[in-house]
Amino acid sequence: MKRKLFGLTKAQIGEIVQDAGLPRFTTGQICNWLYEKHIANIDDMTNLSKNTRELLKEEYEVGLQRPMKETSSADGTKKYLFKVGEHRFIETAYIPEENRKTLCVSSQVGCKMACGFCMTGKQGFQKHLSANQILNQLRSIPEFESISNIVFMGMGEPLDNIENLMNALGVLTSDWGYGWSPKRINVSTIGLIPAMRHFIENSNCHLAISLHNPFDEERSAIMPVNKKHHLKDIISELRSHDFGRQRRVSFEYIVFHGMNDTPRHVKELARLLNGLRCRINLIRWHSIPGADFVGTNEERLLEFQKELKDKGIQTTIRVSRGQDIDAACGLLSTKELVNEKKST
After folding, report:
1. C-alpha distances in Å from residue 6, one per residue of 35, 38, 40, 136, 302
2. Tens of pLDDT along the chain (344 residues)?
3. 69-343 CATH pick, 1.10.357.140, 3.20.20.70, 3.40.50.1110, 3.40.50.300
4. Active site (catalytic) residues
5. Is the entire prediction scored with pTM above 0.90?
6. Do the Cβ atoms of 287 and 329 come closer than 8 Å?
7. 122 to 60, 128, 330: CA distances (angstroms)
8. Residue closest to 72 by CA, chosen among 326, 288, 329, 333
9. Bridge partners, 93 (sequence order)
10. Which residues are CB-contacts of 190 (< 8 A; sequence separation ≥ 6)?
11. Mapping DSSP to helix (H, G, I), strand (E, B) and coil, where does residue 319 land?
12. How far apart are CA 138 and CA 90, in angstroms?
């Protein structure tokens, strides 16, 4: 099977050029064709000699793959299904708004974290996505050139796949790649501390922490990884870094009735986050099979937001999008994975 050029960093392409005995400037030419001119075939790299192109084609291909399926929501959200190997699939959500077009990308097939409220977690873990497979979710959809923002909030835990994540971010934000501002990218994590530290120190993209409860014991009950990466240690790690004025830290908080929306949770959130420049995004609970949770009603959701704001915490309520096609927060899962296995 041929190796894929799309998704490689400039340093990785440079190694290929060096090993092939090609001129060093060929590295920049290949990057330009891949990430600025958006070609799909090596033959389209017309400022490379025919011999060079033939040499590359012996072992490499550009490596783009179109989605297998597109599903549209009544609110304009779209969900794309990609095949990423034998019996392996991922989903990607396109979320258009008036002033931005956001793509919610996946970083793994399934997820190891097993959060009780997440459909992807109930699927279990199958594989890490390569940088090629991460970036292909952007490059191979019809809306590619209109995308203004990317959130790594799809299937999987991005920081559990740190090497491929960082390579993908390098392609997105470097001048030899797509040249995006890091402010257009938000990476979500459950709080894997060593990988989170690496991300903070080596990227300027925004960071979102999946919080969902400010008490360690209660958080551990719904998020098993908290037993290893305690919330107090996650917050301590965040406090040890200077994020500056341009970089944002936010906390994702699915609001459950009676479970994490009480006055004592407000008080503990204020204590936990005191002095940390951040924002809390409140998220409505979207029911999934086998999860015995009850979402907070709209009246209490608004009260909860006000109580947090009164404590000096910037708090927003995320608009639910794509729920009718299972594209809303926590709903991404590749049912086709199960269906195909049953048919073989």
Report:
1. 8, 10, 9, 8, 45
2. 899 999 999 999 999 999 999 999 999 999 999 999 999 999 999 999 999 999 999 999 999 999 999 999 999 999 999 999 888 999 999 999 999 999 999 999 999 999 989 888 888 899 999 999 999 999 999 999 999 999 999 999 999 999 999 999 999 999 999 999 999 999 999 999 999 999 999 999 999 999 999 999 999 999 999 999 999 999 999 999 999 888 889 999 999 999 999 999 999 999 999 999 999 999 999 888 888 899 999 999 999 999 999 999 999 999 877 767 665 555 555 655 545 544 44
3. 3.20.20.70
4. 91, 329
5. yes
6. no
7. 36, 16, 10
8. 326
9. 79, 104
10. 113, 115, 157, 159, 209, 210, 223, 225, 229
11. coil
12. 13
User: What residue ranges of the chain are covered by domains with CATH 3.20.20.70?
Assistant: 69-343
28: its two tokens = 């920049």
3-state percent helix, strand, coil for the chain, nearest multiple of 5: 40, 20, 40
Domain with CATH 1.10.150.530 in the chain: 3-61
Instruction: Tell me the C-alpha distance between 179 and 176, whole Å.
Output: 7
Q: Are 77 and 96 in contact (CB under 8 A)?
A: yes
| CATH 3.30.565.10 at 3-61, yes or no | no
Q: DSSP label at 266?
A: H
One-letter amino acid identity for 93? Answer: A
